[in-house]
Amino acid sequence: MIKRFAKGLAYSPRVIRFVEALEAKAPFLRQWHRMQYQRHFEKVYQYERIFSGVYPDYATALSHIPKDRPVGYDNPETATFLGRTSSMLPSEYPVLFWLAQILRDNRTVFDFGGYLGLNYNWYQRYRIYPPNMFWTIYDVPAVVLEGQRILETEPDPRLRFTADFSLAASAAVLLASGSLQFCDESLAQMLARLANKPKHLLINKTPLTEGNTFFTLNNMGPAISVYKIANRTEFIASLEALGYELVDSWKNPDLTCYIPLHPDKAVSAFDGLYLRIAGS
Predict the structure, then answer these.
(1) Which residue among 125, 191, 223, 273 is least enclosed by CB atoms within 10 Å?
(2) For the chain, how many structural domains are there in total?
(3) Domain that includes residue 230, residue range
(4) In 3D, which of 238, 226, 120 has the Cα closest to residue 182?
(5) Are residues 178 and 272 part of one domain?
(6) CA dist., res. 149 & res. 50, Å (int)
(7) Is the same domain home to 36 and 54?
């Protein structure tokens, strides 16, 4: 509790403004702050969800990850550290609402970056799944392997894991919740390669900005990952160019991204979007 209080105080707007004003008058202090924070960022091995640096592209950001740290989710440490169950954040309820409507007439969900079934398990509690629904979790190979191991001991005929994005072509709904920011390629680029596209897109917990697209680094604890903050207008336009129309959007104030030493790049609330093929 003390740790959470201290972290909240350190990231409060007043404290941030005070530190910025102080560093503007003493550049050497900013340099010291930058060096100390970078050391802290690289050494954290517990889940704290902290960020560092601003980079113009994925490759540049990737090159700044220390060589001795695992990268992203495709490794045994990160593939299991979040577990399969946790408390559902308020940001999940808009997805729950729209998914309940969509599943009245649709039966196939492609869960982009669904990890070990967090979304699947959360929404299942509300009994919105029709009897003949089929849910595919798409993720990196290490996560898929762990998911398949789980199904060997706890079979679920509605659930499967895959590392093959082309299977999204057979889904009515593509759900991407808290996953697109870990990808170099945009969702629109991936969808453009499909012969058949999902009719419905439920996108949630995605950091978007009104400024230019940029990349940062996210220390997840077991690993460090490149983290994309896309321009909101361009992101939506890229999907509209594929024939989708925006039905609904919402903000998730329970999720933020603050990058120390780059306060102008802060994202105060992550985005949620529901798009569907126009005219459907």
Answers:
(1) 125
(2) 2
(3) 50-277
(4) 226
(5) yes
(6) 30
(7) no
Distance CA 184, CA 129 (A): 32
C-alpha dist (Å) from residue 98 to 91, 95, 101, 213: 13, 5, 5, 28
pLDDT, the chain, mean: 90
Is residue 168 located within the same domain as residue 196? yes
Distance between CA atoms of residues 124 and 79, nearest Å: 22
Question: Of 19-28, 46-55, 195-204, 225-234, which gets the smallest average pLDDT?
Answer: 19-28
Q: Please name which of 268, 258, 216, 207 lies closest in space to residue 19, comparing C-alpha atoms.
A: 258
Tell me, yes or no, whether 228 and 185 share the same domain: yes
The predicted pLDDT at position 39 comes to 74
Instruction: Report, as an integer, the average pLDDT of 205-233.
Output: 96
Chain-centre distance for alpha carbon 202: 13
Query: How far apart, in Å, are the Cα atoms of 215 and each of 67, 261, 276?
Result: 19, 15, 28
Please indicate, yes or no, whether residues 37 and 68 belong to a single structural domain of this protein.
no
